[in-house]
Design goal:
alpha/beta; Rossmann fold; Xul5P/Fru6P_PKetolase_N; Xul5P/Fru6P_PKetolase_ThDP_BS; thiamine pyrophosphate; aldehyde-lyase activity
C-alpha cells in the first residue's frame, strides 16, 4: 500500500489486537467477554442466514443447493461493525438506564440491524409469525430481499428504524433531528465511510453548533471505517490518525479510536470507549443543566476501524475477501452451483457455533437473552423509532384571527407572507418543545421575521456585539438555520419522524437540492401506510417562496419552479401541493397542513406584496373546494361562457385576472369565466388521486367545448400531464414558465414566458372561433401595449406604473 508516510501504514490497519484512544482498564470480565462475543456470533450467524438461506436455518444437516435462495441479494460488508456497536450500546443501556435510538447509515446494512431486533425479541412481537424457533428463523431468513418480504435497507418494516441507510449522507442530520427537544435521548449514529464522502454528510457534522445540552439529547456518531465501498477504497480509511483527528477536531468533535480485528480485545476496547463517551455526554449535560446555561462542548465521537466483512473467510479462490471490497455485497457467490463455495459457506456459518448459541428449538439461549435490555429500553422497541406514537397534535391558534378581514377583491394590497408570519409566530409560542421552523439562512429574507418575537435562531457558536442589533441569535431558539438545505431538511425529517412538527421555508429555486431526500421521505411514508404498526407522523411541510416570478435581480439561475414536478411524481397517497393565490388562502392552507399527518405538503407563495382577492370566509370555502369559479371576476352568470381564464399561483392569478379584465373591457360582449386552482391535485382525475375531481366537476368548472387559457406558476406541461384525457382536453391552453429568463423586471419575465396579461388576452382572442377577424384591432392594441411595457422596462429598469399598480377595474357584484 503506497503512502507518503510509512508511519501511516500501521496506524490505518484494520487487523490485529485492538488499539484504542481510551485504554481499557478491564471494563469486562472474561465471562462478560465470552457472553458478549457469543451474542455477537449469534448476530453474525443470523446476518449470513438472511443473505443465503431459505431452509435448514440451524444447519441440522450439511448445506445443500436446495437450502439456498435462488437469488442471493444483500450486503455483508458493514454488518459486523454495526452489530458490534449495537451490542455494546445494549450493555450501557442496562448499566445506566439509557434511552437509546440507533441510526444505521451504511447502505444496505439491514442484516446487522434486523438480527438485533430478532435477538431482542422485538421482531417476534411485531411479526408473530417470525417466532423464536426453527420455523420462525426459517421465515425470518427467507423474507430478506425476497419477493413479498423486506428490503436490504432498514426499511419501515424494521422495528426501531427511522432511517433506511440506502440514500447515503443523512444519518447524522436525521440523528440530530431526533434528539432536539428529547433531552434524555442518545442517538447512536453509525456512519459508513463511503457515506462519509458525501456532501450532505460533510455539512451535517456542524450540527453540534445547534445542539443545546440543557434541553436536547445527544448524538454519538460511530464513523465505521472498514476501508472500501463497492469496489473502491474509501477516502477517510486511507488517511492517518493525525489527519482524521485534525478533521474532526476542526468540526468540533473529540474523536476516540477503536481499531483492530481480534474479537476479545476489541470487545474490551469498545466497551471502555463507548462507556467513556457516554459518561462524557452525561457530564456535559449535567454541567449545562445544573447551571441552566447552554454552551458548546466538543462532543465525543468514535472512529471504529474493523475489516470489511469482519469475520468472513480471509480469501475465496485465491482472492482476498475479508478486509477487501469483495466483502461489500454477497461475500461468496454461486454457492448453489459451486460445490466448493457451498462447502465454504457451510464451514463459515458453522464457525459461529449455532448449536451453542441456540437451544434445540432454535431460540437464543437464556444467558445470552439476558444481555439485551427489556421492554422499551430495547433499541428496536424505542418509541422514538415509531415517532407517531409520541406525536401530539399542535396547540393551534385560530388562523381566522390573523386574516385580512376587509378585502376589496382585486384592489387591496398586502404582504401575504408577512401576515402569515404572525400566525407562525404564535404557533411557535404555543408549542415550545414540539415545533421548529427550519430553513437555509432565509427566514428574515422570506418575510417571516415576525417569528423572532416568539423565538430566536438557535446558535451555539461565538457571539459578537453586533449580533445584538438584529442578529436574533439564542441558545434556546426554535428557528433552525444553516446554509445547507440537506442538513436542515435532514433535521426536520428526523424531528418529524421522532414525533414532533415542523416547517421548512426555502427559496423556490434551490429546493431542488433536496429532491432526492424528499423522494425518499415520500417512499418511506407510502411504505409506512402498509405497515400496520407504524403510527402516523406529522406531515413534512415545505414552504416555498422567493418564487420564479420575482427573481428579477437574481436572474436566470434563480428561476426554476420544477420542484412541483418532482413532488407530483410521488404516490398520491402521501403528497399534496398548494398554491394559495392570496394571504387569506395562505393562512387557511398553512393551518390545514400543520394539522395534517403522513403527507409531504408543498406550499408555494410569493413573499412580496400582492393584490388580495378573497375575504376570510370566501378563502376558507375556496381552499376547502381546492378549485372554483370566482364569480366576482366572471360575467357569464346565466349564459354560455365564451372563454375560461384559469390560474394556479399568486403571480399567475394576478396576470390572468388582468387578462380577463382586458377582454371584458375591449370585448364587452364576450362572456368570461374565471377559475382559480389552489390545490393542484384537484386537476387530476378522482381515480388517480384522493383530491382529484370527477369529470362531472371538471365540466362544471372548465366546460367541455370552450377554450381555457390556463396561467400556471410552474412548467406548463405539468398541467397537461395532470389533465390527460379530461373532457375537452384539446381546448386547454396552458401558459407557464418556459425556461426563459434574465435580469428582467417581473413583467418582462412574464412576457418572455407568455404568462403576461397581454399574451394571455391575445391567446384568448385567437382561441374564440366566434370572433373570426372582428377582434384584430384589439389584438394589435394588446401587442403594442406589450411592446411598450417591455421597452419601458429596458429604459427605466422598472415596470410601468399601470402594470405595477394595476387593480381590478370592474365593480364587484354583491
Amino acid at each position: 500500500m503506497a503512502s507518503s508516510n510509512d508511519g501511516d501504514k500501521k496506524s490505518i490497519s484494520a487487523y490485529g489486537a485492538a488499539r484504542s484512544t481510551v485504554q481499557p482498564e478491564k471494563p469486562l470480565s472474561p465471562e462478560e467477554i465470552r457472553k458478549i462475543d457469543a451474542y455477537f456470533q449469534a448476530s453474525l450467524y443470523l446476518c449470513l442466514g438472511m443473505l443465503y438461506l431459505r431452509d435448514n436455518p440451524l444447519l441440522r444437516e450439511p448445506l445443500k443447493p436446495e437450502h439456498i435462495k435462488a437469488r442471493i441479494l444483500g450486503h455483508w460488508g458493514s454488518d459486523a461493525g454495526q452489530s458490534f456497536t449495537w451490542i455494546h450500546a445494549n450493555r450501557l443501556i442496562k448499566k445506566y438506564g439509557l434511552d437509546v435510538l440507533y441510526i444505521s447509515g451504511p447502505g444496505h446494512g439491514a442484516p446487522g440491524i434486523l438480527s438485533q431486533s430478532y435477538l431482542e425479541g422485538v421482531y417476534t412481537e411485531v411479526y408473530p409469525d417470525k417466532t423464536q424457533d426453527e420455523d420462525g428463523m426459517r421465515g425470518f431468513f427467507k423474507q430478506f430481499s425476497f419477493p413479498g418480504g423486506i428490503g436490504s435497507h432498514a426499511t419501515p418494516e424494521t422495528p426501531g428504524s427511522i432511517h433506511e441507510g440506502g440514500e447515503l449522507g443523512y444519518s447524522i442530520s436525521h440523528a440530530f433531528g431526533t434528539v432536539f427537544d428529547h433531552p434524555d435521548l442518545i442517538t447512536v449514529a453509525v456512519v459508513g465511510d463511503g457515506e462519509a464522502e458525501t456532501g450532505p454528510l460533510a455539512t451535517s457534522w456542524h450540527s453540534t453548533k445547534f445542539l443545546n445540552p440543557v434541553t436536547d439529547g445527544a448524538v454519538l456518531p460511530v464513523l465505521h471505517l472498514n476501508g472500501y465501498k463497492i469496489n473502491n477504497p474509501t477516502i477517510l480509511a486511507r488517511i492517518s490518525h493525525e489527519e482524521l483527528t485534525s478533521l474532526f477536531c476542526g468540526y468540533g468533535w473529540t474523536p476516540y479510536f477503536v481499531e483492530g480485528s481480534d474479537r476479545p480485545s476489541m470487545h474490551e476496547a469498545m466497551a471502555a470507549t463507548i462507556e467513556h463517551c457516554i459518561l462524557e455526554i452525561k457530564k456535559i449535560q449535567q454541567q449545562a443543566r445544573a447551571a441552566k446555561k447552554a454552551f458548546r462542548p466538543r462532543w465525543p465521537m468514535i472512529i471504529l476501524r474493523t475489516p470489511k466483512g469482519w469475520t468472513a473467510p480471509k480469501d475465496v479462490d485465491g482472492h482476498k475477501l475479508e478486509g477487501f471490497w469483495r466483502a461489500h455485497q454477497v461475500p461468496i457467490t454461486n454457492v448453489a452451483t459451486n460445490p466448493s463455495h457451498l462447502k465454504l459457506l457451510d464451514s463459515w456459518m458453522r464457525s459461529y457455533k449455532p448449536e451453542e448459541l441456540f437451544d434445540k428449538n432454535g431460540r437464543l439461549i437464556s444467558e445470552l437473552r439476558a444481555l439485551a435490555p427489556e421492554g422499551n429500553a430495547r433499541i428496536s422497541a424505542n418509541p422514538v423509532g415509531n415517532g407517531g406514537i409520541l406525536r401530539k397534535p399542535l396547540d393551534m391558534p385560530d388562523f381566522r384571527q390573523y386574516t385580512f378581514p376587509e378585502i376589496e377583491a382585486g384592489v387591496t394590497t398586502a404582504g401575504s407572507m408577512t401576515n402569515m408570519a404572525k400566525f407562525m409566530r404564535d404557533v411557535i409560542a404555543m408549542n415550545g418543545t414540539s415545533f421548529r421552523l427550519f430553513g437555509p439562512d432565509e427566514t428574515e429574507s422570506n418575510k417571516l421575521g415576525e417569528v423572532y418575537k416568539a423565538s430566536k435562531k438557535v446558535w451555539l457558536g461565538e457571539y459578537f456585539d453586533e449580533d445584538q442589533d438584529g442578529g436574533n441569535l439564542a441558545t434556546e431558539g426554535r428557528v433552525m438555520e444553516m446554509l445547507s438545505e440537506h442538513t436542515v431538511e435532514g433535521w426536520m425529517e428526523g424531528y418529524v419522524l421522532s414525533g414532533r412538527h415542523g416547517v421548512l421555508n426555502s427559496y423556490e429555486p434551490f429546493i431542488h437540492i433536496i429532491d432526492s431526500m424528499v423522494n425518499q421521505h415520500c417512499k418511506w411514508l407510502e411504505k409506512c401506510l402498509e405497515v400496520e404498526w407504524r403510527a402516523k407522523v406529522a406531515s413534512l411541510n415545505i414552504l416555498l417562496t422567493a418564487t420564479v416570478w420575482r427573481q428579477d435581480h437574481n436572474g436566470f439561475t434563480h428561476q426554476d419552479p420544477g420542484f412541483l414536478d418532482v413532488v407530483a411524481n410521488k404516490s398520491p397517497e402521501v403528497v399534496r401541493i398548494y398554491l394559495p393565490p392570496d394571504g387569506n388562502c395562505l393562512l387557511s392552507v398553512m393551518d390545514h397542513c400543520l394539522r395534517s399527518v403522513n403527507y409531504v405538503n408543498v406550499i408555494v407563495a410569493d413573499k412580496q406584496e400582492h393584490i388580495q382577492f378573497l375575504g376570510p370566509e370566501d378563502a376558507i370555502q375556496h381552499c376547502t373546494k381546492g378549485a372554483g369559479i370566482w364569480d366576482w371576476a366572471s360575467n357569464d352568470q346565466g349564459c354560455e361562457t365564451d372563454i375560461v381564464f384559469a390560474s394556479c399561483g399568486d403571480v399567475a392569478t394576478h396576470e390572468a385576472l388582468a387578462a380577463a379584465a382586458l377582454i371584458r373591457e375591449y370585448l364587452p360582449f364576450l362572456a368570461v369565466r374565471f377559475v382559480n386552482v389552489v390545490d393542484l391535485f384537484r386537476l387530476i382525475s378522482e381515480s388517480q388521486h384522493p383530491h382529484g375531481m370527477s369529470d362531472r366537476e371538471w365540466k362544471s368548472l372548465f366546460t367541455v367545448d370552450k377554450p381555457i387559457i390556463f396561467n400556471f406558476h410552474s412548467y406548463p406541461w405539468l398541467v397537461h400531464r395532470m389533465t390527460y384525457k379530461r373532457p375537452g382536453q384539446h381546448n386547454l391552453h396552458v401558459r407557464g414558465y418556459r425556461e426563459k429568463g434574465n435580469i428582467d423586471t417581473p413583467f418582462e419575465l412574464a412576457i418572455r414566458n407568455q404568462t403576461d396579461r397581454y399574451s394571455l388576452a391575445i391567446e384568448a382572442i385567437d382561441r374564440i372561433p366566434s370572433l373570426g377577424n372582428t377582434a384584430s384591432s384589439v389584438r394589435e392594441k394588446f401587442i403594442r401595449l406589450r411592446l411598450s411595457a417591455s421597452s419601458a422596462a429596458y429604459e427605466n429598469g422598472i415596470d410601468p406604473e399601470h402594470i405595477r399598480n394595476w387593480r381590478w377595474p370592474f365593480p364587484i357584484r354583491e
